[in-house]
């Protein structure tokens, strides 16, 4: 497929020239156009560009103005030879025109066309001006020529009035065509192309061309790169280093001339002008042109000439070319062209244009479902993301004020039109949008359009049943509420809907939805544990009214779980009115189980030291035990567990009302509990009596002694143990097991008894053998106690001696009071023979001593009072 | 545009336009398509960015060079027309850009070969396993073209169209499987012939056999048609050349020889 890249317009019709004119060569510099003819005449014309508005009758050439050219003749000069003019080159900075005629270069004034007295260069086959001279001198040009006589090339520097040979280099064979760049010449020899560094003389072979080829072409195209006519009509690119960096373009076999107009290569043959792109080497356009003889570019302007007419190839505006490419879906070519044109367009303009092209290209790729490419294009062109979203029906929030740009970036009304209703494709597009939006939503691409992006994303997730829907809603988002809500409702995403409400601070609405789901009025299985979720939600809710509003509902559902709304609240809320424990306790009286759990929470976890709660809890425990016991077939294990709880509480707490509880368990078989309660009242005799005689639980009895004497002094402890021992002994005569228990008690706890009084209690007939562990233990204990007190006495005595010695030391020397002694505090002499002496030796007035003692400024040395002395 | 497909183009020019054949829609599917678009464009338009290294496919016409490249870059086999001039692809390989030149095997383009090979880091010499002459041509006609390649250029010898021979089962188009069947033409070139050629090439290049990669590693048999061993070939070669670039970069020597930059300095020295 072709592009229209150039328009061919006539600059001067044959009528403008004399009959029989035969153009041999031409040169164009700015507005100046020079023609050289076969009969040795040089014409100077002005080439004037005109902007005409296109007559409407003509082809619909859109809105761009139509350029045309006219020429007006300035001067002409006959050089007086019967030879054709072979080459013309203008050096506009020097106002000179270089003319090759009859193997001789002469220099003319470019205005008057008068020959100048400067020397001529003879024996020239052909010449060129170096496009990129190394000298960089603005007042000279570098002329490179092929000598017609010697097998050499010569480099001249040409100034306004002078011509100077810089270098002459031999070539391997006679050259016939020359182009120059920097220090390099590119030459066509008889059957091959070479580059030649004229400074070093180094030759680099490029490639051979068939010697039967009509005319070799060597065309400078850019720094260090040439375009050459190769075998079979190839246009080959070659660098001065002999490397080719672009694939060749394919011309016809008999190309006469070539020109460059970035990014195109133009070639002229007998019938056509062909246009190839250097970016992709494709042929882009063919313009019929018969009898052409010259095709050349001059400072970016491409001119083609027949023997009697001059035409200009006007490049079409780049934007038009690009739009043409885009409308035929040739994205890559369009982008290449746009990018290639960067240097020819002002930066700001380019950026705006290029962005738009990228966006259009993005939509083309998108329509082909080439999502990766599309994404990259959208991203790099900073597409207003709503342009994309708006393609998807209903995705933008109804409140969105978005209107697509004009002119439109694509031709599609919506996704359905784009996919022609293919559901498979629609789904692919939706998946793409989903990933794309989720990627960009936190980047600056979404800036300002957060609401549109998030709402669209929510809709896509909901529609696709995508798990990220919940993530979106629980994290920071800007979903538009009413639009999103109706969408979620439509797709039965009720749990998500609740989240949406919650995020938007409408907790009441959220709860209402969730409760409906739990009650089965709405169906949404997103969260099987929704009830627990709601309980947690209420637990962490700061909205008192809401919590109380749903408390009954929650507790009716499950007391066990529901009570968490009270027990797991943050502690500081207990001190607030809404959730003070008293209020909760009185509220929970309807919910027995919950109440128990709550009191447990207060007493055991929160350790609230309030008699009311402790008693209440204990009573509830007792009732629970009784309730369990009263069942037809009581579950022993459960009863034991419950009793364990009760006993623990009774033991650990000191706050409950003991008498009330004793009353409560009167007549039941809760003996152990009763023993504990008696213990609390210090009625150890009764307690031990229950344990030893009713329960015969010796281990429990021993334990009782241990925990009841915990934190008490030794006599108290000994008293308890002795009580227990006596209790055992009372029955030892009837029941041998008591006797064993008594012996074990003594032997296991020798240290807990006052051995002397115990021995008196024991029956005479007990053998020493039997009690030997006890006796040995008791002895050890006594000896230990004795030694410990001896050590204490010894240490105290030693300390006393130390202090006595200190005291003596202080009294040892007399203190002399004279006029030269001053008080250490007030720095005044002493008036009376009364003073105070500090242990450090300082002496002070008595009044100063009392003062300084109060100020404690020097009191640091006073010995500290020691209670042990 | 009827033949274009959805991928976008690397710069490639190939084939004769009169057949309506335009390979304008080539593009690597190497898994990085997104960034590739811009990457390629940038290369195409600014000639500043040069490929890090060059790989050249040489071989007689009709051996399947274009088909091999096409198979590798586009993962498919497609009718080709005899290449005119040459074409090139750009392949992103890790951080490197590798330009791969497909040359024309036809006699009339033979003269371009030296230029294509200039400064090449790797040359793939391709023959057709069903055509002994194509192997002989490599030595007679193509080896000389590689004189312009880099001194440390790597060579691979590839016998293509293995699917045609009685060595290969066309039913199993899976890469890597080669059970035997009959009803195929006789294989004309054995792998041993290629290995022998490879050794002669090393001798010609006066390279030490102990230093260069082993012949067995550098001789391949492939089928562009089925895809057999095509990735193995290109990736094998890439993996072999990349260390060379790394080495060169490390030693501060730019890969693409730029005479224009090096020569003036030399002349300066001479003047002084
Ligand atoms: N059976 C088979 N045919 C192949 C294979 N590779 C290429 N061909 C065919 O061989 C012919 C030539 O293939 P090309 O890839 O054009 O050969 P080429 O080496 O590029 O040829 P030139 O461009 O002229 O140098 C085409 O008809 C291909 O279809 C292959 O592996 N198996
Ligand atoms: Mg080919």
Automatic annotation (TrEMBL), chain A:
Location in or out of the cell: Cytoplasm
Leader peptide range in chain numbering: none
CHCR repeats, residue ranges: 569-733
Top-rank lineage group of the source organism: Eukaryota
Classification via PROSITE patterns: CHCR, CNH
Span of domain CNH: 20-302
The keyword Nuclease belongs to this UniProt entry's keyword annotation: no
InterPro entries according to UniProt: Clathrin_H-chain/VPS_repeat (IPR000547), CNH_dom (IPR001180), Vam6/VPS39/TRAP1 (IPR032914), VPS39/TGF_beta_rcpt-assoc_1 (IPR019452), VPS39/TGFA1_Znf (IPR019453)
GO biological process: autophagy; endosomal vesicle fusion; intracellular protein transport
Pfam families hit by this protein: CNH (PF00780), Vps39_1 (PF10366), zf-Vps39_C (PF10367)
GO cellular component: cytoplasm; membrane
Keywords, comma-separated and alphabetical: Cytoplasm, Protein transport, Receptor, Transport
Protein name: Transforming growth factor-beta receptor-associated protein 1
UniProtKB/TrEMBL annotation, chain B:
Gene3D superfamilies: P-loop containing nucleotide triphosphate hydrolases
The UniProt record lists the keyword Transport: yes
UniProt topology in membrane: Lipid-anchor
GO molecular function: G protein activity; GTP binding; GTPase activity; metal ion binding
The reaction(s) this protein catalyses: GTP + H2O = GDP + phosphate + H(+)
EC number, as in UniProt: 3.6.5.2
Gene Ontology BP terms: endocytosis; intracellular protein transport
The keyword Hydrolase is assigned to this record: yes
Keywords: Cytoplasmic vesicle, Golgi apparatus, GTP-binding, Hydrolase, Lipoprotein, Magnesium, Membrane, Metal-binding, Nucleotide-binding, Prenylation, Protein transport, Transport
Pfam family, one: Ras
Signal peptide stretch: none
Subcellular location: Cytoplasmic vesicle membrane; Cytoplasmic vesicle, Phagosome membrane; Golgi apparatus
Cofactor: Mg(2+)
PANTHER family: DRAB5-RELATED
Family: Belongs to the small GTPase superfamily. Rab family.
Protein name: Ras-related protein Rab-20
Gene field: rab20
